[in-house]
Amino acid sequence: MSLVAFRVVIGAVVLYLLMVVRGQRLPRGWAHWKMGGWLAVVGIGLPFFLISWGQTRVESGMAAILMAVMPLATMVMIAGAVLSVTAALVLDGPYGLLLGTESLWTGVYLGVLPNGLATIIYFHLIEARGATFFAFVNYLNPVFGVMWGAALLGEVLTTTVLGALATILLGITVANVKFGLGET
Question: How much helix, strand and coil, in percent to the nearest 5, is found in the chain?
């Protein structure tokens, strides 16, 4: 199984367990599953595939900046996990489901924190602060992506990367400044 598929499965398990603990259940209607499947492809499968593919061609900091261009923030974990496992089986065969020890623990971490718990926080933030606020928060991904790329991977902070970060942060600032123009 690819690391992406594994982390999505772990994230789905975390969300499923939370659902059970809260006394909730999976949707029963075909319309819900049809919409969930579509969102899984567009919001999880395609972005994760494209991000993984893209990061084989650019540094992680640049990838983080590029991800901020079009925030993809719709997640349906269980349908995405099914899609990812199916894709891994189709593309890699049964050997695609095998992980080494290091990959296993990395996948568990990525599934629990960035997928499972982050999705819970994501929906809480949208409910508490609104979708517009969360869209701005998503633009902080490149800041941390560049920072971690430089600190952990030794990536060079070029003037292009720093200029892109400054533009993103300026955009966040401008969007959040109140100009006294009144409510619209």
Answer: 75, 0, 25
pTM over 0.70: no
Round to whole Å and give the CA distance between 71 and 134: 10
From residue 80, alpha-carbon distances to 91, 92, 150 in Å are: 16, 17, 31
Name 143's Cβ contacts closer than 8 Å, sequence gap at least 6. 64, 165, 168, 169
Which residues contact residue 49 at a Cβ distance below 8 angstroms, ignoring those fewer than 6 apart? 4, 87
CB 78 within 8 A of CB 16: yes
CA 168 to chain centre: 19
Query: Which residue has 């990367």 as its token pair?
Result: 161
Query: Which sequence spans correspond to the domains of the chain?
Result: 3-176
Q: How far apart are CA 22 and CA 14, in angstroms?
A: 12
Dihedral angle sign, alpha carbons of residues 90, 95, 98, 100: negative
Round to whole Å and give the CA distance between 3 and 9: 10
Q: Cα separations (Å) of 117 from 13, 41, 65, 101, 109?
A: 11, 21, 23, 23, 11
Read off the pLDDT of residues 97-123 as tens digits, 9 standing for 90 and up.
Answer: 566 666 777 777 777 777 777 777 777
Gap between the Cα atoms of 90 and 1, Å rounded: 11
